[in-house]
## 1
Amino acid sequence: MITNTNFKLRRLKQILKSLESVVVAYSGGLDSTFLLKVALDTLGKDNVLAVTARSETYPLREFKEATALAKKIRARHMVIKTSELGIKGFRNNPVNRCYYCKKELFKKLKNIAKAEGLRHCIDGTNYDDLKDIRYGRLAAKELGIKSPLLEAKITKREIRDFSKAAGLATWEKPSFACLASRFPHKTPITNHKLYQVDRAEEFLRGFGVRQVRVRHYGKLARIEVLPPDITILTNKGNAKKIDKRFRQLGFLYTTVDLRGYRTGSMNE
């Protein structure tokens, strides 16, 4: 860990104290779980509400994990329904697709905060997120959503270290992005395509790979896993099983990206 890590954690708590009460945009991932835990420890249960949005782009597996985690750390937890595919600007999948998604979500969070008497809405954006293109940040700025981890300049690696020290099971959880991130820009997103990607990724996890993305190009699927896991998928026996399952899902061709998993590969 770098020398100013403890300073960053103290800074995060100071930022949260200044907010007094918050609604946390909570997905159950590494960042939002850590943020929720620190918010609870800093502000107390009555001043923190975790809100999870259920939608077509959010796998049931992730939702169940989020619910279990919120219960384990004794957070107040509210589940709301959103439908990104009902937003034309989203389902047509433009480059700034995430802007439309986050704008709808943050509007709902603001309304919840007002109804619950909580002063601010916060999300789990961290300092490393500045390295990638994040169109949802514009929506956050427009609606006054706070990003305490970013403000405290806390990195992904530091969040993992802090989470491990706090006993959070998410400390080693792989990064996750909504299923809509699996499609090339300007390719319309449908429920069926989301189903294909979700089922394909769940199947691959059965081979022991933890970090996985199935990029959807119509009849072709491009698989990204961490470089050490590539040989697991290309093993003759496994490759045959994967090809068979992917054909059942509607993919005529299946490829494994030799560069491996990387954040933002659809923006390349």
## 2
Amino acid sequence: MTTLICGSLAFDNIMVFPDRFKNHILPEQIHILNVAFLVPEMRREYGGCAGNIAYNLMLLGGEPLIMATVGDDAAAYLERLDKLGLRRTHVRHVHGTFTAQAFITTDLDDNQITAFHPGAMSFSHLNKVAHAKTARLGIVAPDGREGMMQHARDLAASGVPFIFDPGQGLPMFSGDELLDFMHLANYACFNDYEAKLLSDRTGRSLEHLAAKVDALIVTRGGEGSEIHANGQRYEIPCVEADDVVDPTGCGDAYRAGLLYGIANGLDWLTTGRLAAVMGAIKIAHRGGQSHQTSREEIGARYRRAFGSLPW
């Protein structure tokens, strides 16, 4: 089943400051802040929610189809997609822009200063869901504001079930707009902070919102996750990771597990557990797409944690 992944492709530029920010920022001079940090260590990772979700769904043996926008600097990312066999039929090059990217500086106390440039992501509305005629399932992940609204409306109008996954883009929307998303979507997924913000913005309880969709999923990091579906709440435990290296992209790996389970008709308990396995595999590696594993290895990991897996 072809799954349309609407979201961002981005570069994550990660720099390490071998000191502590607090040693270089004077609180009494914060009104005239002018600081520079020497960062001898830097790496660039392939990221963006659409790229991360599609990568993990590919590892599971799914059929991801990315819908995203990139800028003039995207050649290396596009070449990577080709090498991975990830179709980029609906990856649009927006001339005169940069690909979306984050610049993240981390100090020795794991404090972070981040700047994010949306670039081509702001033109995501130029992509039309109607052009992805083979899609049978979708996800609206963090992207340009107008693009997220349009893609949700278009997926609903075309009868393609989809997950609403606003992530860090949730604050862009008003309470009424979030209720519209929940009305259009078949499924919705948030982390615990986003779920609280959703309730605050809409003035609705999580239980009330869960009744608007077939399933509402809330992830809680190391405390596992929960799935509200069929009038029940399924508790999904966190899967122990081989190592805890980098949480970047763990949520996207989890969502790939959800999409695979939905596409293949797995029950919610199995789907949630598979999603948890994907998150545990990812967290042991740096970046959102550097982990390499086979479908068979994923299945073996699931069986070690939960028992038999129906594939």
## 3
Amino acid sequence: MTQSSPAPLLQSDDRLGTQRGAPAAGTAAPLVQVRNLHKGYGPNIRVLKGLSIDMQPGERVVVIGPSGGGKSTLLRVLMGLEQIDEGSIRFAGKPYIEASPAGRRTTIDTVVRRQIGMVFQHYTLFPHLNILNNLILAPCKVHGENKATATARARALLARFGLEAKAEAYPNHLSGGQKQRVAIARALMLDPKLMLFDEVTSALDPELVAEVEQVILQLAQQDMPMVIVTHDMWFAKNIASRVIFCAGGVVVEDGPPEQVLGSPREERTREFIERVFHIR
């Protein structure tokens, strides 16, 4: 299959500054405030155990950690896809998600939820729609956008990601890397204020990973706030303004990438980094 790639965005020796896009301390209210988040599945499986995080506008937060540590569950909660047992989330200073005192239900502000975009590991494209219609469906149906306006925006996004020739193609005619780039474009069609990426390269062949990471790097250059769950430590190091290591449903370590990935303070973090990088 012939591969199309996005236009070059970074020279091979370019790097995003680790603080680029992150405000100085005390200059802005948090974009996201997660407080005392608890989430379980049934009485015996507790995934999140009192997790609390603040995220500033413009930050690129990469969440790493062992499987089962709560990383993907955190993203699904942030997207409003999971009920929570306890805790609350504020977005841009407004109440967004809150558990009732008894944990019987979760209140979710759907207006706030529409400001958050998420890209999943397995694309979630509609197979019966061509790529262009995958992109314009939500803006037209959810936001009531004029079809011609939405179509023009969709074509511009596809061109930006090197996919203009695929507008009329169906998902089963695209490579994994192309599908994931389409999924990112589809999320951007709703003009999100925050992007969530859940292991978006883990299902791809190694040669396709770079083209998807390049698209995310482009968004980072434009100061799009994002939370990224990944096992790719090279990618984490080069895109993050901040790295959070989660294990056992709590935040174990939180700091700049050079500190968390290079000189972790916590023994649990050091063990994980050694195992991932195969170092001693």
## 4
Amino acid sequence: MNIFKLKKEELAAALVALLMFVALNGLMIYKYYERFTRGGNLGFWSLFYGHFQVSGFDCLTYITLSRWKILYSLYRHPLLATLMYPFATLNKWLMEWTGEYNFAIWIVAAILVFCAFYSFVFIYRICREVIGVGRTDATLLSAFFFGFAYVMITAMVPDHFCVSMFLLTMTLYIAGRRLRSGRELKAWQTMLLFFFTTGITTTNGVKPLMAALFVNGRKVFRWRYCTVALLLPAAMLGGWYVWQYKTMVEPAAQHDRMEMKKKFAKNPAFEKKIKTHDAWREKQSGEPLVEDNPLFEYTNVSSPRIKAVVENLFGESLQLHADHLLEDLNVSRPVFVNYRLAVNYVVEALIVLLMLGGIVCGRKQRFMQLCLSWAAFDMLLHIGLGFGINEVYIMSAHWIFIIPIAVGYLLRQTEGRWQTGVRAALVLLTLWLWLWNGSLLTSYMLYGKWVL
């Protein structure tokens, strides 16, 4: 099955989606074009990092493509820098060929459009082929999903989340088709999904394994399957991590530490400023589960969970806050921001209620149970352990597809007036999300603030 080949019924919706993703990335290029297309022998860290700000997303991919270096946290993204190397090589050649014009923003835009486009296609197919709703409802649910604030933003920012979303939706689609047909997920398929999903974001590696367990059952525990699907790719990623760390990361880190000491010695005021900012960031981040341990660096046991769920998990993730619009938590954004309008809370509550209704309707379906297991893992990670809880909205693309999937089951299980009511609510919510988030996002990209 060629999952990248578009079907006739998908063409119209896919074309509209493609144009939208091109437009979103066009906004990003417009905002940063003058500065970020500079090439040559420049300090790309200062050029990009000091001027890029879209919420708490990183611009490390722009820097990596401008002059290749391992800047990502290796234990969280062991394969990401490697996958970016061919694109960095292409950009280097283009800069030399054109006379120092940097194509990084264009290359990243192309990657994001591809990943967002096929994420849309896979969500459509999940709704259509796995859940079993009609073409119109599948299109509506897909548009609903990409109306979510941090799904829309994920499709245009130079971070790793859009690539992860592409891999996760593809995994769900493949697993869902296997569940519908009764066929097993082969060991080599699980291996590839696990290898690339883990390589992009380590914590997501458990999800292809969950998918294999739901599809194949206890057969995944056979030693041959475990060896091919889990042990082999894990050993490859582990070995690649160690080699990268010893040969490139640690030497570079030692050099950076020496350079920082020199700067501090020459400018004590700079050292004081850095330490003050680091202390403020630690206060913003809350109390970690384990002190002085890089594995628990982003955990948080002190932030209030209910407020985090209301304002961040189901708040900012779905609808942007007008105040402190897309500000960075580590720079100027407060941990919690309230909406100005009561209607935002009404919309949030309605979306959550639709999701819960869909979960009840689809609770006996194996595919819904798989999606719930993924979401439960993320909730344990973010709400339980507090991993990135203060800006949990940034990680939305890893789990929030459970909402349109659940609403899909709600549409399939309801009939008559109830189904018409759910569909009408879905249409109104989709229009609201695109108008609200689209206007705020466009204003930010064009003017740096919300222009009424």
